[in-house]
Amino acid sequence: MDPELINLFEIVITLFAAFIAFVQHTRANGAIIESEQSKQTTRNVLNFFDQTDDTVPVAPPEVPGRSFKMSDETKRWITSDRSSEERESLLRQIAEAESKRLGVYQISVPSVWYNIEYGVPLGSGGSGKGTK
Prior knowledge:
There is one protein chain. The protein has helices at about 5-50, 70-80, 85-100, and strands at about 105-110, 110-115, 120-125. By secondary structure, the protein is α+β, with helices and mostly antiparallel strands. A three-stranded antiparallel β-sheet has the order 1-2-3, covered by helices on one side.
């Protein structure tokens, strides 16, 4: 076989090997970037639920709504024995906090206030009686 043809064949094989190496390198860099993004997402989700960490006050998009939204039964309980004005105000405050994807917030009306964490009332105060 002609030496020039052998050299050309070797150059083609070398270029092909370099192309494969470039593709693998690009994929590896993409995987590293995705891995770092995944780690940051995991950190954000964990920090959202960590009571001692206030760096992520709003639920990340990966957190499902059921993790921080109040159940209908709890809303009924909170608004029972309340006047219609107070009931509307409490429900509006809950809806606003949930639309902002807040995990921890406080709602109040003149007769009562509630500390809410992840859709669960954890503290309250006031007279506890609404004016029907």
